[in-house]
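Sequence in, structure out. Go.
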Amino acid sequence: MIKSFNEFVNEESGSDYYTLYHGTDSDFFTHLDFDKAAKGDRYNNPLGDGIYLTPFKEDAKKFFGKNVYVYHLPKSSNIKKVTKENWENDFKEIVSETIKRLGFNYEDLDQLRKNQINSIYKFQPTQILMLNKLTFLLENLYKIDKYDVADIIEEVMNERNEPYDAIWYDYGEVLIPTSKFNSSYFSNK
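Output:
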C-alpha cells in the first residue's frame, strides 16, 4: 500500500529527519558520483537529475537493486509535495515550455493533438510515466529525435526542481536534485 506524504510524516514523528532509501545493483560505494550513476549509454531522468529515493526499504531493494543506501533528509528541508491534483497545472506548464523550446507553440496544435497531450494526464498513473509518454508523443508529432525531446523535458524539470531540497511524489518516489544532494546524509548502513 502506498502511503501519502502526510501518512509517512506521521509515522516519522519524533525524528529530525525522514529516512529514505536508494537501491542499486552497483557495488557498494562510499562516494556518490552522479556522472557514473546513469544506467546505460543513453539514460535520462524525466523528473530531473538527482538521486531517486523511496521511503520504503523493501521497494528500494525489490525494484531498484540489491544494495540499499540510507538517506536522512532533514525535516527542515524545502520539500515540494507533488500530488496528482497539484501536478495537473505543473504538467500543463511543462508541456507548454517543452513545446516552446522545441520551437513550436501549443496553441498552434490542432484539437486532435491537444486531446492526445491532455489524455496523457488523464490516463497515466504516475508523473514519470506521463513524462515518458509526452516524450514519445512529441517525438512522433514533431519528428524530432527522442533524445532531444527527453533532454529538453529533463532541462525543464531541472529548472523547476532547483528551488527545492527534495521533490516528494505521491506514489512514493522522492527526488533529491543533484545540486541539493548532501553526502553527509547518505550511507550504506
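Check: The helical segments are 5-11, 34-37, 57-64, 84-101, 111-123, 127-142, 146-161. The longest strand covers residues 17-24.
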